[in-house]
Write a structure and sequence with these properties.
- The chain has about 400 residues and is an alpha/beta fold.
- The protein has three domains: about 80 residues, Orthogonal Bundle (Arc Repressor Mutant, subunit A), CATH 1.10.10.10; about 130 residues, ATPase, nucleotide binding domain (Nucleotidyltransferase, domain 5, 2-Layer Sandwich), CATH 3.30.420; about 170 residues, Nucleotidyltransferase, domain 5 (2-Layer Sandwich).
- The protein is built from 14 helices and 15 strands.
- Helix 2 crosses helix 3, helix 6 packs across helix 14 and helix 11 crosses helix 12.
- The radius of gyration is 24 Å and the shape is globular.
- The model has no long low-confidence stretch (mean pLDDT about 95).
- The structure holds zinc ion (ZN).
- Zinc ion binds next to loops.
- Zinc ion (ZN) binds next to loops.
Amino acid sequence: MRPEFKYEKEVAGTANARKRKLEQYRKIVSHVYQNGKASIAEIVKYSKMSQPLVAALVDDLIGFGILLDDGIGESIGGRRPNLYCINPEYQYVIGVDINLHTLNIALFDLNNKLVCREEYKNCELENSPKYTDDLVIRVNQMLTKMNLTAGKILSMGVSIPGLVDAKNGISFTHLSFTKEGLSAYLSEKLGFSVVLDNDARMMALGEKAFGKAKGKKDVLCLNLSNGIGLGVILNGQLYCGKNGFAGEFGHILIDPDGDLCYCGKIGCLETLISGTILVKNIREAVDKGQPSLLSQYKEEGHNIDLRAVVSAIINGDQFAIDQLNKMSEYLGKGLVTLIHLLNPEMIILGGRLAHTGKYIVDPVNMVLNKYAMERISSETEVVCSDLLDDAALMGTLSNVMKEVLRIS
Ligand SMILES: [Zn+2]
């Protein structure tokens, strides 16, 4: 099922006439969506359609309820123009961010405003119908809470770790038990379309549409949480590769004599750096009596998880900072390779570890200073995401709108 606006079903005519009409409507809705508001004259200029045609189409779209008359705007010489905007409540987009241990569900209006968000902690990602059944229940609970029916949902965007065939809506690594593919499976149960993609790519898309990658052309977006993901923006476009598997940065070989990775290979970058490894190393040291804020935390009966480790780092825990520094050395060396290959203008660190801010950016920069070719790396800025835990959710919203409006 392709995501489409409700009004698209109401457009009648022969196949060709209908297709032409829908394209004309889409041009207008797309322009207004991307600009917030627009006048007839602006739409005429952008769409290269005639003034009377645009005026008639805008009238139709107001009739459908997707556009609103936003009143009189500023004059740029002559009569002050009428402005039109998207009706934010015409339909809504659901964003689902599936992680190994947490699940986030959000509801956005058509002004990209987050109107509801639920976070489910300790929600272990398991390859079973129970997980998807619970997901469907939780999405429906949000609809009930917000007093919405399935018909008010434009589409649901899903972000999931691992290998994903976005074109066909198939997840290979997680929730792979469905015969028809995860998108079709969820869509059947929920009654609206589902657009699926990999988490690092969704974070990159979120950064591109709403975060620090906005307006930039060549950006690498890292998801540093339990594993390592990479979303690549090249020449202003999300780079997917032939099968959509581009960006498996965590599985490049770093240490041929290293540990076995869950992917089956030995010595992958992800066996040396990831939130999971950081937590494992810290737990082992704490068990052996390592002095740390986290030792006290454990003595108080708490479980040392990634959140606790990040919090200890931010609070200046010397041992946890040391462990992050060691890990940043490997991360930096991996990034040097990417910088030399791709010459990015910015590297955005996202995911749970990006909450540590300067504690991860500074050691990474030190490694880049040491190992990267000065002329190439001097123009590459390393920053932490400011969307942080919302990056993937914002990316799923952008992914849905890209599909619906067919924008790049
Ligand atoms: Zn691996």
